[in-house]
């Protein structure tokens, strides 16, 4: 009987070990580094141990974008635009897992998941008259400053990764991240499903190009996109990795399906190509 209880306690501990508490960014309001609705951004940090103590893996959550005031107003009240209803704990699995059997390379690194709440891949920074805050770039910097203080300033190895809109963030901010980490450290970036292409839809128009123009304009993102691109191209085009990866100095590893279903649904066959949903 005792053994059985002990067994269940151990199972519970094992499951709970995967759950990582949230941290609200400090001084978010003072720094103007806030989510779309003005709430403070959130990240989850699981500390490294042993030989991983000075290694850092920062992972950025995805969740699409908003490209004008009405669509951002809708997102403001969702998990993509506000920290109000975000989970208190997250289950760290895969590349974030603390278990060596599931995550042999990074299980003992400092692992961080940054929640997405700005809706422009952390590039925005503009004051508006609407009740919306477009402050993604400030969030990125403020979270990084807090992580540097928490030990990332002593990093020996550091990776910036992300998925989908977060994967695009890891491309757009790859060199910025490198610049924040000590020069002696080895720094790399990983983009998982974040390579969005500028393809024409089945009707021949580039809907996604218009969409990104809207994202960049609405969020005042131009000044935070790579200058190597914005000095040559229209700013909206600098949201496409195809126009920026050649200039990135930091090693970048791109993982993307050739049949990315988001891009098939939204770039090749956008919803407006079938307004009656037939
Ligand atoms: C956490 O994720 C792992 C792997 O996906 C899963 O086996 C486990 O049941 C999850 N735990 C909780 C509490 O959700
Ligand atoms: C793309 O559309 C298909 C068919 O409607 C759907 O099953 C799939 O989940 C969609 N994929 C994404 C990433 O939205």
From TrEMBL:
Keyword vocabulary terms for this entry: Cell wall, Cell wall biogenesis/degradation, Hydrolase, Secreted, Signal
Main location: secreted
GO CC annotation, single: plant-type cell wall
Signal peptide: 1-17
A Pfam match: PAE
Family: Belongs to the pectinacetylesterase family.
Protein known as: Pectin acetylesterase
């Amino acid at each position: 009987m005792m053994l059985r209880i002990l067994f269940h306690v151990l199972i519970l501990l094992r499951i709970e070990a995967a759950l990582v508490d949230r941290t609200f960014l400090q001084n978010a309001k003072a720094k103007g580094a806030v989510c779309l609705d003005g709430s403070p951004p959130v990240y989850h940090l699981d500390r490294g141990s042993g030989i991983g103590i000075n290694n850092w893996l920062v992972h950025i959550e995805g969740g699409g974008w908003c490209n004008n005031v009405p669509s951002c107003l809708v997102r403001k009240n969702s998990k993509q635009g506000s920290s109000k209803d975000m989970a208190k704990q997250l289950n760290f699995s895969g590349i974030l897992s603390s278990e060596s059997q599931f995550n042999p390379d990074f299980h003992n690194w400092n692992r961080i998941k940054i929640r997405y709440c700005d809706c422009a891949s952390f590039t925005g920074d503009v004051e508006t008259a609407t009740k919306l805050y477009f402050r993604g770039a400030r969030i990125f910097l403020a979270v990084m400053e807090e992580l540097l203080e928490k030990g990332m300033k002593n990093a020996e190895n550091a990776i910036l990764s992300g998925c989908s809109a977060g994967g695009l963030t890891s491309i757009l901010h790859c060199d910025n991240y490198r610049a924040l980490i000590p020069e002696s450290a080895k720094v790399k970036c990983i983009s998982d499903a974040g390579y969005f292409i500028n393809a024409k839809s089945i009707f021949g128009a580039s809907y996604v190009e218009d969409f990104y123009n809207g994202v960049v304009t609405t969020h005042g993102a131009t000044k935070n996109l790579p200058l190597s691109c914005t000095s040559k191209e229209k700013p909206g085009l600098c949201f496409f990795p195809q126009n920026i990866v050649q200039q990135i100095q930091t090693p970048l590893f791109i993982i993307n399906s050739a049949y990315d279903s988001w891009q098939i649904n939204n770039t090749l066959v956008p919803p407006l190509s079938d307004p009656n949903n037939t």
